[in-house]
């Protein structure tokens, strides 16, 4: 199933990708070049650290490109339409232990729709009782409000 993103989420990921592919990549290449100037590469900590950083950077770039390529943009005019929780919805919850929670269903800086909370909320509306099957145990909550 493709990842659903709002326009703002897509733009945030695109901005991160541009930063990684531009200035961050250039900085790592410069660090590798500087470390090479220190001589023997077999015992050159700076060189190995820079190469490791380059590997992590390239892995993140590959992951971001794949996410953006496969993602489907959510029609934000329909977010929260009819009071149903969708990707991009702001949801107020009241847990059965009395704790109030405000979450945004988003795989970019929010509660992922693939997470236990996200899966429990999607498709529900204000007033519904939900059961969250979390790693530390199951808990119950009532959806107080759904907005965009």
Structure description:
The chain is an alpha+beta fold and 148 residues long. It has two domains: 4-73, Orthogonal Bundle (Helix Hairpins); 76-147, Transcription elongation factor, GreA/GreB, C-terminal domain (Chitinase A, domain 3, Roll), CATH 3.10.50. The protein has three helices and six strands; from the N terminus they run E-H-H-E-E-E-H-E-E. It has helices at 7-36, 45-70, 116-121, and strands at residues 4-5, 72-73, 90-95, 100-104, 129-134, 137-147. The strands form two sheets. The protein has a four-stranded antiparallel beta sheet. Strands 1-2 form a two-stranded parallel ribbon. A hairpin with a 2-residue loop joins strand 5 and strand 6. Helix 1 packs antiparallel against helix 2. It starts with a strand and ends with a strand. The mean pLDDT is 89.
Question: Radius of gyration over alpha carbons?
Answer: 21 Å
Residue fraction in strands: 15-25%
Do you know the CATH architecture of the largest domain? Roll
**How far is it from the N-terminal to the C-terminal residue, by CA?**
23 Å
Keywords:
elongated; 148 residues; 2 domains; Helix Hairpins; 3 helices; Chitinase A, domain 3; alpha+beta
Question: Which SSEs are present, and which pair or pack?
Answer:
Elements: E1 4-5, H1 7-36, H2 45-70, E2 72-73, E3 90-95, E4 100-104, H3 116-121, E5 129-134, E6 137-147
Parallel strand pairs: 1-2
Antiparallel strand pairs: 3-4, 3-6, 5-6
Helix pairs in contact: 1-2
């Amino acid at each position: 199933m493709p990842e659903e993103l709002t326009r703002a989420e897509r733009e945030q990921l695109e901005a991160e990708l541009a930063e990684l592919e531009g200035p961050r990549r250039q900085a790592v290449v410069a660090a590798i070049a500087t470390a090479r100037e220190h001589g023997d590469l077999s015992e050159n900590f700076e060189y190995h650290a820079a190469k490791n950083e380059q590997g992590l950077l390239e892995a993140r770039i590959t992951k971001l490109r794949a996410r953006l390529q496969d993602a489907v943009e959510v029609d934000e005019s329909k977010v929260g339409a009819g009071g149903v929780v969708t990707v991009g919805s702001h949801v107020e919850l009241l847990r059965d232990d009395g704790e109030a929670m405000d979450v945004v269903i988003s795989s970019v800086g929010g509660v992922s729709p693939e997470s236990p909370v996200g899966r429990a909320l999607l498709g529900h509306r204000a007033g519904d009782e939900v059961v969250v099957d979390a790693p530390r145990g199951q808990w119950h909550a009532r959806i107080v409000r759904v907005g965009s």
